Structure formats: C-alpha cells, structure tokens
Amino acid sequence: MDWIQLFLEQYALFCLIGVVVGVLSGLLGIGGGIVLVPMLHAILMAKGFSGDMAFHVALATSMACIVFTSLSSIRAHHKNRNIVWPYVWAMVPMAFLGSLLATLVAIHLDAFYLTLFFATFILFAAIQLLLDRKPAPHKVPGKVEISLVSLLIGGVSALVSIGGGTLTVPYLAMRNVSVKQAIGTSAVLGFPIALASTVSYLQDAMRQPVHAPDTFGLLYLPAILLVTPLSVLFAPAGVALTKRLPVKVLKRVFAVFLMGVGIKLLWSQLA
User: Fold this and answer.
1) Residues 56, 107: contact at Cβ < 8 Å?
2) Do β-strands 219-220 and 215-216 pair in parallel, antiparallel, or remain unpaired?
3) Per-residue pLDDT of the chain (271 residues; tens, 9 = 90+)
4) Three-state SS string across 147-184, please?
5) What is the C-alpha to C-alpha distance for residues 33 and 107, in angstroms, rounded to an integer?
C-alpha cells in the first residue's frame, strides 16, 4: 500500500492540475500555462528545487504539456467548426519563429526577471478578462501586420509559457472574428508555439551531461506524464462547456484567481 500513499501524496495533485488545464484550454482558448506555471513552480519549490531552477522547469514543462493539450482542443474545435483556417495559415510561421527565438532567450534569462514578466503579464490578462471590453471591429489585416503580430504573440507566449490565447483571442476579436472562432483559432496557434518552445528545451536538455532527479534538462517528467493525458482527455469537455456555461462569469472568476497568483508572485520576488 506504500505506493498508493506515495502516489496520493506526490502525484494526485498533478492529475487534478491536468483536469483543470484541459478544461480551461477548451473553454477559454488558452494553452493552460497561465495556470500550470505557478502551480508547478509552487510544487517544485516544495520539493526542494531552487527558486531559479523551479521557475525555469515550470516554464519548460508547461510548454511540453501544451503541445499535447492543444492537439486535443484543436480536434474538438474543428469538429464544432470554430477554427478560421486562413488566419491559422497566415499566423503559424511567424508565431513559430517568435516562440523559437524567445525560448532561446528564456533558457538563459535570470528567473527573477522571468518571474516579474510572468506576474505582470498575468495581472494584465486578469484585468483584460475583468473588463471584458468588446473592441470595435477593424478591417482584415494586411500581411505585414499579421506577421508582426504573430511574431509578438509567439515571443511573449514562449517567455511566459502559454499557448497564446490571452493575446490571440482579443486580437482576432478586433478583426471581425466571433469569440468562439477566436478561441478555436487560438487553440490551433497554441500548438506550433508550444512545439517550437519544447524543441528548444529538448535541444538544451540533450546538451546537459547531468540532470536533476525526475527531470530531463528543464522538463519535469512526472508532471508531463500525469498532466498531459488528463489535460488531453478533458480539453473537449471545456469546448463543450462553451455552449452551456456563462463564459463571462467564468472569465471573471478566473480573472480573480489570476490576480491572486500574480500578486503572490510579485510579492515573493519584491518582498
């Protein structure tokens, strides 16, 4: 029975996180990193990882999980016809490049600055969700604009380890895309962003001769093995909930949660 107790103490929380990440991925069009990173960071700190190592591992592991979660979310959104494929093909190349380049920076950036950037970003995301403003629609963007925006989305997403939905959804909403289609399209864009970032982390891991316990480079293997399958399983449930639940209310509840996480992270770095 010892292995059961060990599982409940050490890994049951990862299973719960996988469910939450999957549902939010499908429901709000986010990759789940905005929830996964602070939770992983707290767990890793409790396990004895240094503050610098814990945050880098949380970022890398989150991106690896998003690769698989986004695929499940994409399938469900495609089935519901929520994806605007012309936008996908226009945005993917530069979003992939932005993520790839930003990850190379994030690997070597001090965790203090990464934490400040992440905390500031999720506070911005929380305020955006609380305000829930509906911007006036604009015309279809030109190639230069959509390339630059996609590069920015990919870069910022890699630095804070998210699928990009927090940036992609409001941008597409300004471009005459319905909220449901913006969420679906954002889910697709999250895959190349997460894939590019994960490839960079894997390359970095293969260059390291020694790895911390349960890790491969900056990837925390127990979290990937437990969070990923459950997030994949529950992402379609989140997509289904977009038809049944008051998304506005859920956004506000989620925003309050994000504000608490952001303030806690800022306090831990600046206190």
Assistant:
1) yes
2) antiparallel
3) 455 555 566 678 888 888 888 887 777 666 567 788 888 888 888 888 887 788 899 999 989 988 887 887 788 888 888 898 999 999 999 999 999 999 988 888 888 888 888 888 888 877 877 776 665 655 667 788 888 999 999 998 888 877 777 788 778 877 778 777 888 888 889 899 999 999 999 989 988 888 888 899 899 998 898 888 888 888 788 778 777 777 677 677 777 777 887 787 788 777 6
4) HHHHHHHHHHHHHHCCCCHHHHHHHHHCCCCCHHHHHH
5) 17
**Helix, coil or strand: residue 216:** strand
Distance between CA 212 and CA 48 in Å, rounded? 11
Asked if 102 contacts 154 with a C-beta cutoff of 8 angstroms, the reply is yes
SS (H, E, C) 20-69: HHHHHHHHHCCCCHHHHHHHHHHHHHHCCCCHHHHHHHHHHHHHHHHHHH
| Whether 187 contacts 74, CB under 8 Å | yes
Residues 6+ apart with CB under 8 A from 209: none
The residues spanned by each domain of the chain are 12-270
Is the pTM of the predicted complex or chain greater than 0.85?
no
How far CA 140 is from CA of 33, 86, 146, 173, 175, in Å, comes to: 29, 11, 10, 11, 6
Q: HSE of 107 in the Cβ direction (CA atoms, 13 Å)?
A: 21
CA angle 85, 37, 162 (to 5 degrees): 15
What is the rounded CA–CA span in Å between residue 244 and residue 23?
A: 13
Scan for tokens 């939450």, then name that residue. 20
